[in-house]
Amino acid sequence: MEYSEIMVRYGELSTKGKNRMRFINKLKQNIKHVLSIYPDVTITANRDRAHIFLNGTDYVPVAESLKNIFGIQAFSPSYKVEKNLESIKQAVQEVMQDVYHDGLTFKITSKRSDHTFEMDSRKLNQYLGSAVFDVLPNIQAKMKGPDINLQVEVREEAAYLSYENIKGAGGLPVGTAGRGMLMLSGGIDSPVAGYLALKRGVDIEAVHFASPPYTSPGALKKAQDLTRKLTKFGGNITFIEVPFTEIQEEIKEKAPEAYLMTLTRRFMMRITDRIREERSGLVIINGESLGQVASQTLESMQAINAVTCTPIIRPVVTMDKLEIIDIAQKIDTFDISIQPFEDCCTIFAPDRPKTNPKIKNVEQYEKRMAVEELVERAVAGIKVTTITPQADSDDVDDMIDDLL
Ligand code: ATP
Ligand code: MG
């Protein structure tokens, strides 16, 4: 037998009272976006569960995609069976014979939402249980903690059998916490920061600063590829490219080397904040962490932060580099992050940036520049695109093989 649908149980959102329907609709939308790479799959969602109809699509890759989507607590693939006793019985026998091995225990848990069906759930349990003994005389029934809990659900349109319960990603559906701007470089840390913000329901928009011709198209593509990797957790992500060349040249010309990094970051922060305001974002998220290099001291963080009072979430701030790399590998961004394309910061970064920049000095240097106009021009020049999920390249290879 082949799986016909997947039953999805919601995560933490079950505790959210009257917001429940808003959460569920968001989750449904996110699942739709993530599963859009499987054109035949359809989805419905009600107060208690969502149902994903495979319509002939292979179950395995769909399940892999589902495992990533935030807001899903668990899911079960199910077999659809014609709603009559004989068909249900045969299907139950077939499934149990398929999964049975020596020593395995089982129980049947029936549920009847169609109350006109000829047997109630208690009778159905007994009837189907004895049907299992007919074909597997050595199997043991066990009411508490059986190896296989075969769930039989008699609904209006059909009956459904399921016995697997697969753990979902947990977290909150992306978008239920509001919008935040993720400052996304091509590095290892910011995609991980983005992932962690997504996990708590933040609808991130990726803001990337590019300084062509100093930065290459490859660096831009890298940031876009990283963004695409992040779409598997909750669907489409808006990608915002900011033209940053003019500002970097201006800083280079007007300020001493030791302050380039701090000034650059302050401009990035101002611009991101302006974009946030225009696009109704509530917070800024970045990949800053505490460490030994200059951009990572608390003094530096304070100098950069001083240009805004918007809340800034720094999901990786207290993590060790190895912990961050661990997550980057898990979410499959690491290999992209280590591609050797120079970021705008790497190119203009001096060998010895100040580890304890003085705000007074910083402000002095900024007086030499038309800060407001520079920021405005950069914001006016942004390019906004939508990044959508894409089948993994392995899948694409398979598809190409299929075509040949
Ligand atoms: P990452 O690995 O994310 O690049 P990092 O450890 O290299 O971080 P920095 O280079 O000091 O740290 O950057 C700190 C943060 O500033 C980044 O995590 C990112 O949020 C932001 N940032 C740096 N460069 C860019 C850029 N070109 N576009 C957007 N944000 C950037
Ligand atoms: Mg970096």
From TrEMBL:
Its EC number is 2.8.1.4. Its main location: cytoplasm. It is found in: Cytoplasm. Residues 60-165 form the THUMP domain. InterPro entries: Rossmann-like_a/b/a_fold, ThiI_AANH, ThiI_fer, ThiI_N, THUMP_dom, THUMP_ThiI, tRNA_STrfase, tRNA_sulfurtransferase_ThiI. Pathway: Cofactor biosynthesis; thiamine diphosphate biosynthesis. Keywords: ATP-binding, Cytoplasm, Nucleotide-binding, RNA-binding, Thiamine biosynthesis, Transferase, tRNA-binding. One of its GO terms (cellular component) is cytosol. Gene3D superfamilies: 3.30.2130.30, HUPs. SUPFAM superfamilies: Adenine nucleotide alpha hydrolases-like, THUMP domain-like. GO terms for molecular function: ATP binding; CCA tRNA nucleotidyltransferase activity; tRNA binding; tRNA-uracil-4 sulfurtransferase activity. Pfam families: ThiI, ThiI_fer, THUMP. It is an enzyme of class 2 (transferase). CDD domains: PPase_ThiI, THUMP_ThiI. ATP binds at M183, L184, H208, F209, R265, G287, Q296. Catalyzes the ATP-dependent transfer of a sulfur to tRNA to produce 4-thiouridine in position 8 of tRNAs, which functions as a near-UV photosensor. Also catalyzes the transfer of sulfur to the sulfur carrier protein ThiS, forming ThiS-thiocarboxylate. This is a step in the synthesis of thiazole, in the thiamine biosynthesis pathway. The sulfur is donated as persulfide by IscS. This is Probable tRNA sulfurtransferase. The gene is thiI.
